């Protein structure tokens, strides 16, 4: 799963990485948590609430992290849908329509996971080489309350863990290879079996990790030092 992640680069870096005409200005965040606003890259479907940058039909905007299905009676349970299981995307009512029509990329350059049996209280930071920016595969939705309030929200797709992640946790967020960005955002592709195959065959599992300080456990802590390695008594046999 993915319950906390990092986006510690600038909007200029995001603009370059995703070839956007522009990108909303934001501050680096080292401890992004559920129900916060997260940056997302959308395809052709337009957001009605957010100012969007557009280049080659890709748009960037901020979404509420925790999917609120369009048919939901209220927004109270969004924190229960911060992740979506790949295995049930095509059938679960909360995700089925978004899987077909409203897919997105969620930029990050690290995410946290916990394995208390092995590392005690120390969480682990997972990242790609040189902590480069990558993109989670995500879904997004638009919800309108009975009073007319509109909330646009997102969820991060996860799957059975592979590679080094399998030693830490049974699930992992789907990080898409760059070659799959365009096809994932292509709204003309709606077949759930094809979309599932795209995710499974383009999952980036070349990850690295190290333990960090337990200060990240509190969402109140959000500063660069969270990313610094923490010494632990256990030998890190997986490095």
**How many structurally independent domains?**
1
Question: What distance separates the N and C termini?
Answer: 21 Å
For the record, what CATH class applies?
Answer: Alpha Beta
Strands of the widest sheet, in order across it, are: 2-1-8-9-13
Report the C-alpha radius of gyration, rounded. Answer: 17 Å
The rough form would be described as globular
In N-to-C order, the SSE pattern is EHEEEEEHEEHEEEEHHE
Write the CATH fold name.
hypothetical protein yedk fold
Helical proportion? Answer: 10-25%
Please, what is the average pLDDT?
89
Number of helices: 5
CATH architecture annotation name: Alpha-Beta Complex
Proportion of residues in extended strands: 25-35%
Regions with little confidence, pLDDT below 50 for 5+ residues: 235-239
Structural class: alpha+beta
Enzyme class: hydrolase
EC number: 3.4.-.-
Keywords: Covalent protein-DNA linkage, DNA damage, DNA-binding, Hydrolase, Lyase, Protease
Family: Belongs to the SOS response-associated peptidase family.
Topology readout:
Elements (H helix, E strand, L loop, with lengths): L4 E3 L3 H7 L11 E4 L4 E6 L10 E3 L2 E8 L17 E3 L10 H6 L1 E6 L1 E4 L2 H4 L4 E4 L6 E11 L5 E11 L10 E3 L7 H4 L7 H10 L6 E4 L28
Parallel strand pairs: 5-11, 6-11
Antiparallel strand pairs: 1-2, 1-8, 3-5, 3-7, 4-5, 7-10, 8-9, 9-13, 10-11, 11-12
């Amino acid at each position: 799963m993915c319950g906390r992640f990092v986006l510690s680069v600038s909007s200029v870096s995001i603009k370059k990485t995703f070839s956007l005409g522009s990108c909303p200005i934001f501050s680096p965040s080292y401890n992004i948590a559920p129900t916060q606003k997260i940056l997302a890259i959308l395809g052709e479907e337009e957001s009605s609430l957010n100012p969007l940058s557009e280049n080659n039909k890709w748009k960037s905007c901020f979404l509420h992290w925790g999917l609120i299905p369009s048919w939901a009676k209220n927004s109270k349970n969004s924190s229960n849908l911060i992740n979506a299981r790949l295995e049930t995307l095509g059938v679960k009512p909360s995700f089925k329509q978004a899987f077909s029509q409203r897919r997105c990329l969620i930029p990050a350059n690290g995410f946290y996971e916990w394995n208390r049996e092995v590392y005690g209280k120390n969480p682990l930071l997972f990242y790609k080489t040189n902590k480069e920016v990558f993109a989670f595969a995500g879904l997004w939705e638009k919800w309108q309350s009975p009073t007319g309030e509109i909330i646009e929200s997102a969820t991060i797709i996860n799957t059975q863990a592979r590679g080094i992640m399998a030693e830490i946790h049974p699930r992992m967020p789907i990080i898409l290879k760059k070659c799959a960005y365009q096809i994932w955002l292509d709204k003309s592709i709606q077949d759930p079996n094809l979309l599932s195959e795209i995710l499974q065959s383009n999952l980036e599992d070349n990850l690295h990790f190290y333990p960090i300080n337990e200060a990240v456990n509190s969402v109140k802590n959000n500063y660069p030092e969270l990313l610094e390695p923490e010494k632990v008594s256990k030998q890190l046999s997986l490095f």
